[in-house]
């Protein structure tokens, strides 16, 4: 039979088995190397998720601070000249049609309008964080 044939002192079946074993070893090595690369990408995405969660918590804390009623009241008094309604200005439902016909009195206190800081700030383009698919394409 042709498998029992000898090539340079080795049986042909032994040489075929050695070649298959070498291919298997190379295949396992390549699979392990690719898996290590994928693990590194997964770890990078997980770090990005943690950073984004921290950023979200920071932004939520900032929004919470900006929406404080005492701060909004202070800003409205300072910049808009607004104040709580006095007892003299409270009316019942029956008096509303009569009040609607009366002209509004002129404001005694001039309103100083402050410029919006967002219009004064130089326009800077924010650099977006890479999306996980971009990270995979960049090889991170």
Q: Care to describe what's here?
A:
The chain has 140 residues and is mainly alpha-helical. It has helices spanning 12-66, 69-79, 96-101, 117-120, 132-138, and strands at 6-7, 10-11. Strand 1 and strand 2 (10-11) form a beta hairpin. The protein is rod-shaped, with a radius of gyration of 38 Å. The model has no long low-confidence stretch (mean pLDDT 81).
Structure at a glance:
With 140 residues, the chain is mainly alpha-helical.
Taking all residues together, what is the mean pLDDT? 81
The rough form would be described as rod-shaped
**β content, as a range?**
under 5%
Number of helices: 5
Structural class: mainly alpha
Task: List its salient traits.
5 helices; 2 strands; 59% helix; 140 residues; mainly alpha
List the helices and strands and how they pair.
Elements: E1 6-7, E2 10-11, H1 12-66, H2 69-79, H3 96-101, H4 117-120, H5 132-138
Antiparallel strand pairs: 1-2
